[in-house]
Amino acid sequence: MTEPATAPPPFAFLPIGLFGSVMGLTGLSIAWRAAHLHLAAPLWLADAIGAIAIAVFVALTIGYGAKAMTAAGAVLAEFRHPIAGNLFGTFFISLLLIPILIVPYARALAQVIWIIGAVGMVVFALVIVSRWLSDRQLLAHATPAWVVPVVGMLDLPLALPVLGLPPMHEVMVLGLAVGLFFAIPIFTLVFFRLLFEEPLPPALQPSLLILIAPFAVGYSTYVATTGQADLFAQSLYVLTLFILAVLLGQLRHVVACCPFRVSWWSVSFPLAASSIAAIRFANAQPGAITDAIALALLAFSTLGIAVLLGRTLWGIARGELRTMSA
Q1: How far is 234 from 253, CA to CA, in rounded Å?
Q2: Of 108, 197, 202, 283, which has the most beta carbons under 10 Å away?
Q3: Three-state DSSP class for 39?
Q4: Angle at 30 between CA 27 and CA 32, to 5 degrees
């Protein structure tokens, strides 16, 4: 007699990369807050998106915590995976960004969350870089997900100007230096892999937009750290626009040809970060063109993230989490 199949533990198929949705929603809230200051956009929209981001973070933390307790082997396998393991950085990046949303209402809590995120992000980056150097890596594994630990370090300084913590200029320099230094070889390696290896699987195609993140976040981090939007900062912003234009052209057929996966959330934070950079650049270089670019990117990011959120919630309601996580 055949024994009945054992039901998988709750949340066993919840991927760590879904924390990328928190990054995207948080970044979009920050973008709308910046638009409120520069373009007189409604502040309530930024607050509403921020509330959704926090709710999603709490839900995912509870869900992934349940996965860790009931399916520890799956979590360990995910962390050891040469591609998916890098996405654990999305959790720590979320901890670095959420304080920007809550500092007006609970400064002490924001400070505690940022400190936890900062320590976790630095330790995670050390572990990942050590892993890269300790074992032979396969070129096929060099995907845009490898950029996540780099972006995480670049996010380290972003909340510091508003948290009210003692001066931490050295910490800001650490995040900027490590992030930009490793962005160059990793971007080159991933670009080389895309040129000379097999194309990314359809489910990973949207993750190409992650390649924008080091430049978009790098712009905001550089300005926050140095306090000036000089020629180097402008170069980072222009690179963001150039790479975004190239990648959007490459991905124009993805929606029609590929089934939805939660990995598509990887586009959300790069788009939001590009919007933030564009609004801040428009504030530093006022003009009709810079304002138009900022508004266009903000509208495009908002529409894209709204579609991702709606499709994800619809899929979860229909019990498709396992399929969407494949």
Answers
A1: 31
A2: 283
A3: helix
A4: 110
Q: Looking at domain 16-248+262-316, which CATH architecture does it have? A: Alpha/alpha barrel (1.50)
C-alpha–C-alpha distance, residues 295 and 2, integer Å: 61
Return the residue matching tokens 């949340």.
11
Question: What is the three-class DSSP state of 156?
Answer: coil
C-alpha 118/C-alpha 100 separation (Å) is 13
Q: What are phi and psi of 168, to 5 degrees?
A: -130, 50
- In this prediction the pTM is 0.92
Amino acid identity, residue 108?
A
User: Structural domain boundaries of the chain?
Assistant: 16-248+262-316
* 66 within 8 A of 11, measured Cβ to Cβ: yes
CB 209 within 8 A of CB 251: yes
Give yes or no for a contact between 111 and 163, defined as CB atoms under 8 angstroms apart: yes
Query: In this predicted model, what pLDDT tens digit does every residue of 69-113 receive, in sequence order?
Result: 988 898 999 999 888 899 999 999 999 999 999 999 999 999 999
- Pair 34, 273: CB distance under 8 Å: no
